[in-house]
Sequence to fold (128 residues):
Amino acid sequence: QVQLVESGGGLVQAGGSLRLSCAASGCTLSSSTIGWFRQAPGKEREFVAAITRSGGSTYYADSVKGRFTVSKDNAKNTVYLQMNSLKPEDTAVYYCAARVRPFWGAVVVDTVDEYDYWGQGTSVTVSS
Fold:
């Protein structure tokens, strides 16, 4: 049984930083594509960042590019989302998701339906 557990959320002032963690059990993150999504109250879940199975490719939403960094620690079976220069509009519940299936065609990482497993989310609040 695959389980993803996010941690590291909290309350931070604008301009501050947080590092979110996504720890996995029941699957090997080194062989999974991992995505980070977020959902603000009253809004759709949106893509934030992703890292491929090999860790060789990373993807970011335009809104976080240059501020957020996604990385993997295969030894700890954990994926991180380093968030710097946080803004009030980054306030949301952040979810990590795992795609254990390989991509047979184009690599699509920014769509909810492409992922097989989801964590329960961790809340991030950025105050102005």
